[in-house]
Amino acid sequence: MDRKTNQRKTIQLPQIIAMGLIGLFVACEADTPYPDNPALELSGTWQCRETSEKLPPSSYTVSIASSSSSGEEIEVSNFYQLGQARKVRILIQGYYLSIPVQTVDGFTISGTGSVNGRFDQISLTYTVDDQSEINTVQNIFTR
User: Which fold has domain 38-142?
Assistant: First the structure.
């Protein structure tokens, strides 16, 4: 009897491990393969949740458009709630984003960020200098 008990445990342990691994793989969401043109993948309308040092939290809509044929640059309209006619340029390097120093409507903006593996969330941290004070801002864009 003791021998059967040991044999039963040996048979069940691999099955338990296999079921656990299957459950783990099913529960994980796979990242999208990296796109040929990441700028086109990011193009569209996004919801922005913004927090900053100087202003109360806010939510608003931004629009992203590809601004290069290489797929390595986008333009964001209504960035920092500056209006749809104002655009901020962002460079794409893999999943890393860079906001080069630029002045838009009197605001000097620069920063960094990232896009997640599914290309459905963008995180940005940047500074805005309006010539009287500097505001550090965090944005989360989602679709």
Answer: Lipocalin (2.40.128)
The domains of the chain are located at: 1-30, 38-142
pLDDT tens-digit series, residues 44-59: 999 999 999 999 999 9
Q: How far is CA 64 from CA 21, 26, 40, 50, 78, in A?
A: 39, 32, 9, 16, 9
pTM of the model: 0.78
